[in-house]
Write a structure and sequence with these properties.
- The protein contains nine helices and ten strands.
- By secondary structure, it is of the alpha+beta class.
- Strands 1, 2, 3, 4, 5, 6, 7, 8, 9 and 10 form a ten-stranded antiparallel sheet that branches.
- A hairpin with a 5-residue loop joins strand 1 and strand 2.
- It starts with a helix and ends in a 7-residue tail after the last strand.
């Protein structure tokens, strides 16, 4: 490996799309083998981590030894990803996801002056996708982006003052730091998480919605948090598992960024009769949220997917 690195030191690391086929085969094998009730509770997340590291190393080495450039999302994967999720309920999948994320090491809290870098793909008008790249200070003080993202000449980086932590309670926006610190207080169980959400009541309840509808709205906002402590995310998944009408899509789906993900669908609160739903997309190995989609009459009508999410030391810097 040392000789390979020296040979092609300038070669970029394979991205999520390059790794998708191997990841999908790994998840299919581990989930299918462990689906019975008897072995469900003894499932160790370390198995996924250990095998995933091996798969990643093999794929990166193959990339270095081949033509030396990153193929990215040009064309379909070598093997069509497929995950046998048939027979698994949304509740079972969310419990499995909770067990996986809570087994991960704690996430170090960023410093106030650090920035959250995100690169996401969003569905635009006439099915034309576009990439959005931005930097948000961890304390919510500033937002930075390029005026022409994706262009050969994106322009000069522009910074806007936000001061999210100075806004009054009448505003719903919160800084990444406020979201992280609230998530860190949540218990890992679903009922405890729902109780904490109702006591905090960070978002003003919509009187037209049921209690469950308002619970789902608050959970949705927290699922979009840029930095998430594992225990808090596990609590959100278990709280989601109590929501009515949840459905698990029985195969891996491809998101706006060309990545493969597990999709869990929830009817939009208060609009169930209109056949509108949210679809949360989870990484099939880490089970972190990688995107979401809007569903109408069973068809995808919009969505976004994160290609990169990372903490950096200054605006304009990429990981």
């Amino acid at each position: 490996m040392t000789q390979v690195r020296e040979l092609r030191a300038d070669t970029p690391v394979a991205d999520r799309a390059r790794l998708a086929p191997g990841r999908a085969r790994l998840v299919e094998a581990t989930l299918t083998a462990r689906r019975s009730r008897v072995t469900w509770g003894r499932r160790s997340p370390l198995l996924i981590v250990a095998v995933f590291v091996a798969v990643t190393a093999v794929v990166i080495t193959a990339t270095l030894l081949a033509d030396g450039h990153r193929t990215g999302r040009e064309g379909p994967p070598a093997v069509a990803p497929g995950l046998d999720l048939k027979g698994m309920s949304a509740r079972e999948l969310l419990e499995f996801a909770a067990r996986t994320v809570e087994g991960q090491p704690p996430v170090a809290e960023p410093r106030a002056e650090q920035w959250i870098y995100t690169k996401e793909t969003q569905e635009g008008n006439a099915d034309a996708d576009f990439e959005l790249e931005q930097w948000l200070r961890y304390d919510g003080a500033e937002l930075a982006s390029y005026p022409r993202p994706g262009a050969d000449d994106p322009g000069e980086l522009e910074t806007t003052d936000l001061n999210l932590e100075q806004l009054g309670d009448e505003y719903d926006d919160r800084s990444p730091r406020e979201m992280y610190r609230f998530l860190a207080t949540l218990p890992a169980d679903g009922e405890g998480t729902l109780k904490a959400l109702r006591e905090e009541n960070a978002l003003v309840d919509d009187k037209s919605l049921t209690q469950e509808g308002n619970d789902y709205t608050e959970i949705s906002v927290l699922l979009d948090a840029y930095v998430q402590p594992p225990k808090g995310l596990a609590g959100l998944y278990r709280a989601l598992a109590t929501m009515k009408g949840a459905e698990l899509v029985d195969h891996l789906v491809q998101d706006e960024a060309g990545q493969y993900a597990v999709a869990v669908r929830f009817p939009e609160p208060g609009r169930e009769g209109e056949k509108q739903a949210d679809e949360w997309l989870l990484d099939p190995v880490t089970f972190e949220v990688v995107g979401e989609r809007a569903i109408e009459d069973g068809e995808v009508v919009g969505g976004n997917a994160y290609a990169v999410k990372a903490v950096v030391n200054e605006a304009g810097r990429r990981p």
